[in-house]
Design goal:
The protein has 3 helices and no strands. The protein is an all-alpha fold and 73 residues long. Helix 1 packs antiparallel against helix 2. It is elongated and about 55 Å long. The protein starts with a helix and ends in a 13-residue tail after the last helix.
Length: 73
Amino acid sequence: MVKAYASEEIFKVAQHAMELHGGNGAMLDFGIEKLLRDAAIFLHMDATVDISKLKIVKAMFPHTAGAYAGPGG
């Protein structure tokens, strides 16, 4: 859970840094673009964020996770 949370927060911080620096953030000279690329890759190291969250839910609720919750219950 910590890795999923941390990777999302790292990406948000890198996005804010890019926005803060504006056009200069996209330039190779400042290094902000590399931080954003690394943060985007960190989101997908094990799997996508959605799959990681599904694994967390299945670990927390093994008997009910993935059960159909429609009208038939």
